[in-house]
Amino acid sequence: MALISCENVTMKYDGQTAVDNVSFRVEPGDYLCIVGENGSGKSTLVKGLLGLLKPVSGKIVFDGVESSEIGYLPQQTMAQKDFPASVYEVVLSGCRSRMFYGKEAKRRALMNMERLDIGSLKNKCYRELSGGQQQRVLLARALCATEKLLLLDEPAAGLDPVITAELYALIAELNESGITIIMVSHDIQNAVRYGSRILHMAMHGAFFGTTGDYLKSEEGRRMTGGIEDV
Ligand SMILES: Nc1ncnc2c1ncn2[C@@H]1O[C@H](COP(=O)(O)OP(=O)(O)OP(=O)(O)O)[C@@H](O)[C@H]1O
Ligand SMILES: [Mg+2]
Known about the structure:
With 230 residues, the chain is of the alpha/beta class. The protein folds into 2 domains: 1-65 and 151-230, 3-Layer(aba) Sandwich (Rossmann fold), CATH 3.40.50.300; 76-147, no CATH class. 36% of the residues lie in helices and 23% in strands. The strands form 2 sheets. A 6-stranded mixed sheet has the order 5-6-7-3-8-9, sandwiched between helices. Helix 4 packs across helix 5 (131-144). Adenosine-5'-triphosphate binds at residues 13, 18, 36, 38-44, 75.
């Protein structure tokens, strides 16, 4: 049984279709990249996985993980970048509410800050950090919620190439340590470099399959310019 299995999921806002009949599975240890143009429904599907918006048809089934156990890194907005809290408070807020402020929550927050090499930023104000540092803080926050599944919505948006490469290497390390990754991304080169499976959202039907099959598909060839040996 897959960790997550989505079958013919359709999602709407006020009668307007945002996700149209999408099916895919996430197995333990996978690194699934969700790609597709602006407005193709990627973030809406993420809301479905988190249980924030219900599909109007189809089903999302979890096995071995609950939607509340997903470590989530949201797509960034300007308002979030301006958040007036310390790094430690932001990371700690990722811990699930029943352990919030307990000893265990504090231990997890500190451990995940060390894991992502941001221990020295503990008392800094989040809004005074660089974009790359902010993404590390949000990744540490997401890790406080999970040891199983990370759901990342465009984690590298707005970062320079060096910091982007560091962030991808870090996410790959987390995946190798056993954490399943679902990542929404516009960065197709890195999606096919690191992802084991690709879900390509599109109005005329989604592609879901291994990265190898995606690279051979018409959609994949169009998006990558035909690179098959990455
Ligand atoms: N809260 C909302 N209310 C109404 N319509 C929405 C809402 N959020 C998104 N939509 C619409 O649903 C569709 C899918 O949006 P969504 O944000 O899921 O796309 P996306 O693939 O994440 O795009 P991007 O790459 O720009 O982040 C779009 O047409 C969008 O306008
Ligand atoms: Mg989005």
